[in-house]
Every structure is written in structure tokens, then in C-alpha cells.
């Protein structure tokens, strides 16, 4: 088995959300094990209030892994995945519609620099402005794929899936 993938959904969705479900199927078809933590209870605390409980929940899941997992996240799930990578070893970060900041919370988005990372964002993201994550990616020299879509990235689920498959293939070769 190539490894393990933890997929974190965005706020106001759940572990069966379209993108994380589609990406989990791709990973599983390639021999990776997957899990999708349920953050819905944490999300009842509001955006700023859910950050720390989500990170704590993700830390528990990472710590339970036999080897560093790949973290996949959408929106708030991307934000906490990046933050978790700063404290615990992970094999890769595949992050969608990532907010650079969570209004009302002190943490700014960040990732561990020695981890394979791909950011995907929509030109028309009405929730997480592109310019903020574009500036972050440029400052950190991280790959950023920008698609003609809004925050949900629903017009590009198949294209994102193909990128994810390629991302996992590259990580498997490194193991």
C-alpha cells in the first residue's frame, strides 16, 4: 500500500462532501487508504472558533498513522491541514480553495516548507480571495493551479481529481 490520506472537508459541509469524496475514491483506486474526519461538531463553534478543535482532531488522526499521511483539505479543511503540517510530519499537502486568514482568528495560513504541496484555487473565489493565497504561494514559491471557477470548484472536480492522481503518483515514487 502506498500510504494513507486524510481528507478534511470545508465548513458547512461534511465528510461526504463532493470534492473530498471524489478524491478519496481516486486515492483508494490507487491503493491508498483514506479517512475523512467529521468536523461538523467543531464547525458549530463558528469559523474562528472551529480552528483549534479542527487542528486538535486532525493532530489525533495524524498521530494514529503508522507513517506520515498525505493531507487533503478544502477551504477550512485546507487551512487546518496546512497548520497541522507545521507540528506533525506529513507526506504531502493537496489544498483546495485555501483561506489565507480566518476572520477573528490569530493564525495566518502556513505550511511546512519541506513537504510536497499543491494549492488549487478558483479565479472567481468569492469566499477566499485569490490575491491572498497567490501572494502566499509566491512568497513561499509553492505551486498554485488557478482554475476558472468559484469557491466550490464544482466545475473542475474531474480536473482536480486528475491532478490529485498525478500528485499521489509522484509521492508514491518518493517512498
Mind explaining what this structure looks like?
The chain is α/β, with parallel strands linked by helices. Helices cover 42% and strands 17% of the residues. It has helices at residues 18-29, 40-43, 46-63, 76-85, 130-140, 157-174; strands at residues 4-8, 33-35, 70-74, 92-96, 116-122, 144-147. Strands 2-1-3-4-5-6 form a 6-stranded parallel beta sheet, sandwiched between helices. The model has no long low-confidence stretch (mean pLDDT 96). Keywords: Hydrolase. GO terms for molecular function: hydrolase activity. This is Alpha/beta hydrolase.
Topology:
Elements: E1 4-8, H1 18-29, E2 33-35, H2 40-43, H3 46-63, E3 70-74, H4 76-85, E4 92-96, E5 116-122, H5 130-140, E6 144-147, H6 157-174
Parallel strand pairs: 1-2, 1-3, 3-4, 4-5, 5-6
Helix pairs in contact: 1-6, 3-4
Would you summarize the structure shown here?
The chain has 175 residues and is an alpha/beta fold. Helix content is 42%, strand content 17%.
Q: List low-pLDDT spans.
A: none
SSE topology string: EHEHHEHEEHEH
Total strand segments: 6
Radius of gyration: 14 Å
**Shape assignment:** globular
Q: State the helical fraction.
A: 40-55%
**Could you give the distance between the termini?**
11 Å
Alpha-beta classification: alpha/beta
The whole-number mean of residue pLDDT values reads 96
Helical region count?
6
Features:
single chain, 175 residues, alpha/beta, six-stranded parallel sheet, 6 helices
Amino acid at each position: 500500500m502506498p500510504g494513507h490520506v486524510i481528507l478534511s472537508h470545508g465548513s458547512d459541509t461534511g465528510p461526504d462532501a463532493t470534492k473530498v469524496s471524489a478524491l478519496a475514491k481516486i486515492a483508494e483506486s490507487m491503493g491508498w487508504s483514506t479517512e475523512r474526519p467529521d468536523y461538523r461538531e467543531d464547525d458549530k463553534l463558528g469559523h474562528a472558533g472551529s480552528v483549534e478543535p479542527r487542528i486538535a482532531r486532525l493532530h489525533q488522526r495524524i498521530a494514529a498513522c503508522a507513517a506520515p499521511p498525505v493531507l487533503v483539505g478544502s477551504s477550512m479543511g485546507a487551512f487546518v491541514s496546512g497548520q497541522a503540517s507545521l507540528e506533525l510530519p506529513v507526506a504531502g499537502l493537496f489544498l483546495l480553495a485555501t483561506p489565507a486568514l480566518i476572520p477573528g482568528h490569530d493564525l495566518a495560513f502556513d505550511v511546512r516548507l519541506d513537504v510536497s504541496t499543491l494549492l488549487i484555487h478558483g479565479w472567481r473565489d468569492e469566499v477566499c480571495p485569490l490575491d491572498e493565497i497567490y501572494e502566499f504561494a509566491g512568497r513561499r514559491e509553492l505551486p498554485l493551479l488557478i482554475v476558472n471557477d468559484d469557491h466550490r470548484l464544482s466545475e473542475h472536480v474531474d480536473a482536480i481529481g486528475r491532478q490529485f492522481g498525478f500528485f499521489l503518483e509522484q509521492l508514491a515514487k518518493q517512498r
